[in-house]
Fold this protein.
Amino acid sequence: MTIQLRQICLVAEQLAPVIDDLTAILGIQSCFIDPGVGKFGLENNLMPVGRNFLEVVAPVQENTAAGRYLQRRQGDGGYMVITQIDTLDEHQRLRQRALDQGVRVAHEHSSDEWYLSQLHPRDMQAAFLELEWNPQADFSGYWNPVGGLGWEDKVQQGTTVDFIGVELQGADPLALAKHWASVTDLPVDTDVATPSIRFNNATLRFVEATDGRGAGLGGLDIRVSDRQAILAEARNRNCYVSDDQVNICGTRWYLHDS
């Protein structure tokens, strides 16, 4: 079984200023806008981070799930951990494994070309976990949420190289890690600073929520090739925290040199 972290979704009160900050600070480019999210009362924008993707969604009407999430977590922040599964059998097995543990499927789609299951954030206790499969099974290429292909020329890695980790926070980090491990059928590593689960290309780290915002997706680890450019632009935009961290869209971005 292989689980690839393929996309991170953030949620924002207003889309445009967040996209402006992300592209300027991280040195990435927009590659796709999906009109299909309009049925959920949202607008979005997607940007490649290496061969994976960063999405930001924002409500454009009242009483949306994203809007309620913004209220619960007191503003912009992390929203979804979106994964690509290597086979349909494994996708279906993990989907059933989640159901067997009382985790609800909040939304799903199934066709010959694409299976998608979004596991409910309340049941996952920190964020949506989305399981996706497509028959191409190419972890560095075809990806349905960005329309398949056509985004490759927008990849820019001169400043930011890729995602390498996700920080999920809660009242009891070990219990939260064990829950995500049980759903994903992966072991918890407790021989490191924080309880962790290893995906194919990234590590999920589980930490105590100390920022007053409760459980959620609080931070992202990124590999960078130009730390100084990121820090300089973060200072210009009041997003600088330290030489190792910037804060964009209510999310902690931890910088790790390539």
